[in-house]
Write a sequence for this structure.
């Protein structure tokens, strides 16, 4: 029976949870349907639960107060020394997403100025130009009423935006090679999340050779650009230039080539995959909620009056932003994350022992019926100021939170808002009848079969 929150916090207890299989614990239930399993655990066992996955004991924290404890109040007690981040390090190295401790703090200080709001908004025109080029590519399919896999289209779009924001015009010849390498690496990481016991990279399986070749291609392009910039600094108005110019205020040192490489690839992978998925899911939700789509179209038409949107238009597109926020509530791209406890801790009245693996899932907390009315429904108005007032801070955390909150949050929200506004201004998207829409929970929440839609000019 689920304990009340007041009863649980009164004493330090061992968290409840499913017993699972004698040998494998809950691994079968987890891999059969990851999203259903973590939701059921939260709804059955409450704010904090525990279960076993083979030899590992997992502690799942579901309540906003516990999430805040992990991400903010006691964040130094929780490290990224866990298998999921180890898998990501195969691609990202020791970038901001995967690093920890003093090294992470130094890198965050160095990278932060590149993501100042003024710097980010300067990329608005780049985002709309790339979107207009995508819509132009759609014209032959639109004219023949042929369906488009908008999930693939948005992946291509956000990769192009990330590439040009990072390197400006210096990678024109390498865009396709970068795209293929990134796609291969992301697919391989997704595979390794599903099959964590696959042979390590030193074993020359065909899959491992393919992974290493893709990583070598990406490294070759990035290190080549860094070397060229070192030889001829010149004037470059892109994120790589800002990262290369950054200096530690204590030592005056900048980033090494390896550190630059790791941060650039982190921005590539985290920056394009997550935004593309958010755009795919928002298109799906708008196509299945006619009243919401109509309200957003009215706002876009009124605010833009037929103009191409710019960063300056964002304050006049509050409902469009609420649509994005609600999409990220239902389909947070980074749907789960893990940490390892360094020392014993207490979360929501439950004991978390040292060395425990602790997980938090925005997908779960965003669906807590005690925090959200009709949690499975699509209701952008729940993010209106009057309805958001009083909601616990960590009831909503699609970009994480605390000191480790995603450094690219502003960039991602700017891109998603501009793309969605421009798309809404020019087209209506409708799901292709009979095409399955299903969520697959890997490193991110992707549509398993793509997102096939027809685009109709307005």
């Amino acid at each position: 029976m689920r304990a009340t929150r007041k009863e649980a916090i009164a004493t330090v207890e061992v968290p409840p949870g499913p017993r699972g299989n004698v040998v494998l614990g809950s691994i079968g239930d987890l891999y059969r349907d990851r999203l259903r399993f973590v939701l059921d655990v939260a709804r059955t066992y409450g704010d904090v639960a525990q279960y076993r996955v083979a030899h590992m004991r997992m502690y799942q924290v579901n309540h906003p107060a516990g999430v805040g404890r992990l991400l903010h109040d006691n964040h130094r007690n929780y490290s990224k020394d866990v298998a999921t981040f180890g898998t990501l390090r195969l691609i990202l190295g020791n970038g901001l997403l995967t690093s920890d401790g003093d090294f992470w703090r130094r890198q965050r200080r160095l990278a932060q100025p590149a993501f100042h709001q003024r710097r980010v908004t300067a990329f608005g025109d780049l985002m709309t130009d790339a979107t207009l080029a995508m819509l132009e590519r759609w014209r032959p399919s639109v004219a023949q009423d042929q369906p488009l896999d908008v999930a693939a289209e948005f992946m291509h779009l956000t990769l192009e935006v990330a590439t040009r924001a990072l390197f400006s015009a210096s990678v024109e010849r390498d865009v396709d090679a970068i795209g293929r390498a990134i796609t291969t690496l992301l697919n391989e990481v997704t595979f390794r999340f599903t099959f964590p016991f696959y042979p390590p990279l030193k074993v020359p399986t065909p899959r491992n050779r393919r992974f290493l070749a893709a990583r070598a291609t990406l490294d070759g392009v990035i290190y080549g650009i860094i070397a060229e910039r070192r030889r001829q600094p010149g004037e470059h108005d892109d994120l790589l230039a800002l990262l290369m110019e950054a200096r530690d205020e204590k030592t005056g040192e900048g980033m090494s080539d390896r550190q630059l490489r790791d941060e650039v690839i982190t921005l590539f992978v985290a920056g394009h995959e997550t935004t593309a998925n958010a755009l795919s899911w928002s298109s799906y939700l708008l196509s299945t909620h006619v009243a919401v789509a109509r309200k957003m179209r009215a706002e876009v038409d009124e605010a833009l009056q037929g103009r191409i949107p710019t960063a300056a238009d964002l304050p006049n597109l509050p409902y469009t932003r609420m649509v994005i926020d609600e999409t990220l509530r239902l389909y947070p791209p980074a749907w789960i994350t893990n940490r390892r406890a360094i020392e014993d801790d207490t979360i929501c009245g439950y004991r978390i022992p040292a060395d425990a693996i602790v997980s938090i899932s925005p997908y779960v907390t965003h669906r807590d019926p005690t925090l959200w009315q009709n949690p499975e429904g699509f209701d952008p108005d729940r993010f209106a100021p009057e309805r958001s007032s009083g909601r616990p801070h960590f009831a909503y955390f699609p970009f994480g939170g605390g000191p480790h909150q995603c450094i690219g949050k502003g960039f991602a929200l700017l891109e998603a808002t501009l793309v969605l506004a421009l798309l809404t201004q020019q087209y209506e998207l409708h799901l292709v009848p009979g095409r399955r829409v299903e969520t697959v929970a890997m490193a991110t929440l992707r549509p398993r079969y793509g997102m096939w839609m027809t685009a109709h000019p307005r």
Q: What stands out?
A: The CA atoms of residues 156 and 351 lie 45 Å apart. The chain has 18 helices and twelve strands. Residues 5-10 have pLDDT under 50 and may be disordered.
